[in-house]
Protein 1
Amino acid sequence: MKINVPVSVPKNKINLYKKNFTEATMGTGKLFLFAGDQKIEHLNDDFSKKLGFGNEDPEHLFKIASQANIGVFAAHLGLISHYGNDYKKIPYLVKINGKSNLIKTKDPLSPALWSVNDVISFKKASNLKILGIGYTIYLGSEYETIMLKEAAQAIKEAHENGLLAVIWIYPRGKNVKEEKSPEIIAGAAGLGLCLGADFIKLNYPFSSSKNDAKKAKEITVAAGRSGIIFSGGKKINEKNFLENIENQIKTAGARGCAIGRNIHQNSLGQAVKLSQQIKKIAIK
């Protein structure tokens, strides 16, 4: 596997960056991201006891992440701090910003809750396997410049410390007429590249068909040397879900996937089994 090391990574951190990149992508260059950041983003909507499987217990996420063969488990620093000592072998990606879904303004703002320096200090103190940082941008919001600047600085500082940087980009706001416009999402892919992201997490703007996946190729090409990983979305039929991932990767050219609800809204055993099936498709 050839690793494209950004010039923003200093010479004395290149080996660390390569190590983190190799571990996160399991030596394939493709990222299987297990998303746990919805604990802030969606509050209890995705974790209610009504959903079953012990999903209401936050430790359910850590049990899955520790037993499933994932690339990284993305979660907020505070959540990781409470469970990290019991789950030291999990490869973590620390999400540094987040907002709840209660404020219904059309133009969202999600400023940083922690700095990259906070993550570095936390990594040293905890000795956890922290491979990178994550940040969400709401593109098209009237506050996008705040988030763009924070994301750009976070990516730069992550690289300076040999960490990966994964950026979530969601078009949202009163100026955005269609949040899943393929043209806008392709633009978001190019924007993430310009910020220097290693991977960019986007909503998939098409149906699950193979023909539509061919159209999505424009999005992955727009990302250049940044890798696109599409969001898994709400839980759907398992067969359709796996076919969708396969089309996104084999036809659209995505470099991995980002899955939350479709994994953790299952029993532990089923979640681990499904993760293995995802890995066979996504990480080759």
Note: The chain has one domain: 11-282.
Protein 2
Amino acid sequence: MPTDIIMPQLGESIAEGTVVKWLIPTGGRVEKDQSLLEVETDKVALEIPSPAAGYLAEVLVKEGETVPVGTLIARLEEVKPDGVVNKVAGVILRHMEPPEGGRDYYSPAVRQLAKEKGVDLAQVTGTGAGGRVTRKDVLDYLANREAARPPSIRVAAAPSVAEEILPFTPMRKTIAERMVKSRQTSAHVVTFFEADFSAIARFREGKNLTYLPFVIHAVTRTIKEVPILNSSWGETGIVIKKDIHLGVAVALEDGLLVPVVRHADRKGLTQLAKEVTDLAERARTKKLNPEEVQGGTFTITNHGGFGSLFSTPIIHQPQIAIMGVGAVQKRPVVINDAIAIRPMCYLSLSFDHRVIDGATADQFMSKVKAYIEQSQWEQYL
């Protein structure tokens, strides 16, 4: 029995995905749960595991192509195929008739590139499956068009070129769209607090713990007392989530990913530290499972890891708040009318003013600050 491989949905409200790379050659053997291909979409670049063991008998979507979620992209067979016919570059070619009007015959990535470069796609010869026009075809067309220009025109134009075009990756385009949409959707307001990390700094001595698990613990304890921060805007009212699934933003080379620590309120500092480290490492190596980037109810972004002190992060929809954690730095502060040196940190809370007001946000942050500054941490290991 063949096994169909479909384009997975890698995030809430995601409509399409891009095949970045096939990790198994056509006709090659793949084991169940072994990485089969790399897919990118909605701030997610993940290696997708095979749902079954078998041989990759047929690849229907080439690398670089973008297709809707649920599209059949490949098939596995239990028995190794006898041979591969009509095969180019490891991809089985099928005759594809362009739909009426031709517009949908081009992938979104090809149409976007053609729009940016002013290319009439009807003039481009396709070399993809069934004569489909690929990004490489468009780029080759541009190169040939440039080469065909008279030398005098090329020489005159060269000195004025003082820019470089960095093509958008699917991740960068999606981040841009989501961030703009979030700003257009939520009424963003930001409040700032400063917390003394002295007690945490003392407790961390000799322990392999960063500051982040302590912040997560303080936030989850506070959410239990101010549960409206763990909510979303609904059509008929505010939807308060009963489970606390905390998203932790991870910076990647070409974007940002937000893996989720599920039921973060039920875990001690040591377990939180292990899970955050594991999720961050697998995010950077594209080893996360799709469900590990879905279902977050509140997000923390630790921008202080790069030395940043203040930040006004954009809310991760459909959540209603995101907390920024700045760098922990020793600063002079006034304690009991005396100047002292303490490890201090600025915390920011970007919140949706449609859902909560400033008083609720400040109440929340006051409690987070109090939990961070407490001295009894041993019981939460």
Note: The CA atoms of residues 120 and 319 lie 42 Å apart.
Protein 3
Amino acid sequence: MADELDEQLPRGVAVSRRQGAPPWQVDAGERPSLHVVVEGSFHLVQHEQRVLELAPGDLVLVGAGPPGAAPCEQRLRCLPSLPGARSSHAELLSATYAAAPAELPALAPVVHLPAADTRDSPGLLAIVSLLRAALADPGAGQEALARSLLQPLLAYTLHSHRRALAATRTVDRRIARALQLMQAKPTERWTVAALAKAAGLSRAAFARRFLAELGVPPLRHLTTIRMQRAARRLAESDDSLAAVAAEVGYDSEFAFSRAFKRHMGEAPAAFRRRCSAHGAALALPVVCAAA
């Protein structure tokens, strides 16, 4: 995954955690930036006009339009929950990137990912929790740790955005059949050929259509399904790692642990300990950092 991030995603150049009592604002700047609303009521403002309301748990990527697009004055304005009311606290995590994501040249200048769309992405929530923890601790090395999380943060955000877009359009019924099988039987030893046969397509046609529909290859999507289920089981149960591994289609605890760490950025045991000890404190307010 690290190689894919280096090849496809821009480098994160700055990261910050802002806190305070509204009203206050953050200029988005000239570089593309990704913002996570942890607490408070925010609005994205363009040329002094409110264009987007943001709630706790929302993510917004701004300045990520096609190359050559005209810059647009943008800022995030934090406001009290009610006009004239006093709000005790607001918090915003912000990351700035060297360039717009090259993998999505047609991306809109503003990408909004509501909290409702992050609930099924334990990876995204885990990265946000780790980032928040790093920024909350001013100790030596924490800034470097926070910067190392910026590319995974962008990767999971874009993946969740693509998935949300895919959910709003009609999926090819043959691809839908394959998706249903993956969801219903994640432990099955699926191959691209087997999924293509179930979908009634040749292997090449199936792989091509699947990538066009979901933006990722079939087996990578299957891995995402398995890791999401594994994350939930690790966070919500006391099952052994071997039992969780078997439940999501892995023959050995070692193979599962290696796949989980590659996909989630930390080992299953460490993920479970963090959720058990700090999940409620480090998670976004509207969701549990159980993708």
Note: Strands lie at 12-20, 24-27, 33-39, 41-46, 49-54, 59-62, 74-79, 90-97, 110-113.
Protein 4
Amino acid sequence: MHQAYITQAYETAIALAAGFLIWRLLIAAVDRFYARRLLLKHPRSATYLSPIKSIVGLALLFIVVVVLLDIWHINIGPAVWSAGAITAVLAFGAQWIVRDLLAGYSIFAESQFDVGDRIEITTGINSIIAGVVEAIGLRTTRLIDRHGRTVFIPNGNIYVVVNLSKGVKRLELSFDLPWCDSVENMKAEILKMAGAAASAAKIDADPVSVHLDDFTPQQATFRISLRAPQGSYDADEGMMRERLVAALQAKGWLARGDTSQPKT
């Protein structure tokens, strides 16, 4: 009997070591496959990396548990039939986990947001968390907020999502410029400057338009409008404004004391 226990202990240690080694190899294989085959061609595939790792880990854990039960000759049939009350208690306690898993499935199925998106999440009454999505798991979503802090949000607590990266934002700038040429020539020149400023700031704007809003005998008010995906120019909006002001000053149309006013 003592020898049988020693043999079972050795087999248990071997099973655990083998399971850990297989888990590490599978995770490395998933990372390598994603890095070489999918991430470069399909950036959205990064969204599924964390859930796939979780599924692989859970499947391997189930197999290891079955192997250990077989090693120790444990018959779980009678225990399962007599564990109705325990199962009910566990089911009641795990309802939050089930809710998080179902909410996580909805996030993936409906493509509400992806890794790298800038989002605002409503988690309760007047409770809004904003940041960049770092990872989406089966139970939680991980954000990096504006202060650089890592925030873990259970998927079941996500009530409303505003995806700023998938929306379109409108930017308008108005300039009071002295009359230096005809209206058509000034509009064409300002349009060229605005397009160059957007390109330099790496803003994918479509389209850029220039309008004459008001005028006096001494000056004219021109309004520059552009539309672009929110996520494409959050960090570069200020750069575009600076490039445009510099171009107008270099042209001699805008004095150093003049400013541009964005309108929403």
Note: The chain is about 50% helix and 25% strand.
